[in-house]
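task queued by scheduler; priority normal; single chain, no ligands, no partner chains; default sampling; output format set to structure tokens
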Amino acid sequence: MSDRAPQPVERQLPTEESRDLLALVRDMIQREIAPRAAAEEDAGHFPREIFALLSESGLLGLPYDAEYGGGDQPYEVYLQVLEELAAARLTVGLGVSVHSLACHALAGYGTKEQQATHLPAMLGGGLLGAYCLSEPSSGSDAASLRTKAVRDGDDWVITGTKAWITHGGVADFYTVLARTGGEGARGITAFLVPGDAEGLNAAAPERKMGMKGSPTAQLHFDGVRVPDSRRIGEEGQGFAIALSALDSGRLGIAACAIGVAQAALDEAVSYATGRQQFGRPIADFQGLRFMLADMATQIEAGRSLYLAAARLRDAGRPFSREAAMAKLFCTDAAMRVTTDAVQVLGGYGYTLDFPVERFMREAKVLQIVEGTNQIQRMVIARHLVGPETR
């Protein structure tokens, strides 16, 4: 419709190295990801080759230590890379975020021996990870999970079912939370389970509204045996490890949401400046101009919010409340912006010929994953007024 190409986001990056990194990412997106995104999503193709390329390029372990093959980048930089990837294709951006989440437990709570043994392959050796917390009967109430791990000599035997697992069935390793003790949060322990472990099977992928290229599946653990050397942290520490990972993971979701919203805004601006009605571009009409202005403002506010939380994390300060705020605001903003983008395009926005309908379908899931936005409001309220009384 319009020859007007979207301008790259003006980013405040802390170093020349990080600016070069963003340039590398943008070049890879233009060459390898963006040209194939629409067709591959429509076909439900999982781009495993892209994740191999990201690993080879050092982009799957950006926020982790260089000692083990990571990129030693602050979260402030890592999240902006995620945003760029998600703007090109959410399956890729969210996939990188999930992989980072799957590495968090070992990187933060593993022994030096465990880290030296496993992290190099996880961060830069071509492996892809997944995170196994949710179950069919425990989603928001994660502390009630039922998957059990029973000690048998030097091994643990894991039995149960995990649900809504991104990369379920295609991951090379799974960070699994299982019950090793009594009821409640204190009876949960974390394990690193190989993707090819005997007794581990994936169900058929879920049939989803969006993100059709990203497999989401139940995982069945039928007496999966893992050695105690693959237990991460202390027995009973798993829930605390999970919550720590989710604080960081929520920032990843926030960044992905802003990426999708930015892509929708770019498409809406391009269309509005090229589409003619009543003898002039529809971008000349005040009602539509104000809509675009509101969309851009929500995106900038969300970006500032997730970056402020990331900088707290980088400084070693508490950021749980801010992470919940960022996840809540950014994903709600993405839903509003993508819906408005469809409206800007009118009938064309509702067709598969333009990408905004895909952006709208993808934005919806971001309000749900890694803690629904209702859960985020509960987290924020607890920080403000304390836990709920019973």
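post-processing summary
- Strands lie at 129-132, 148-152, 155-166, 173-179, 188-194, 200-202, 216-227, 231-232, 276-277, 280-281.
- The chain has ten helices and ten strands.
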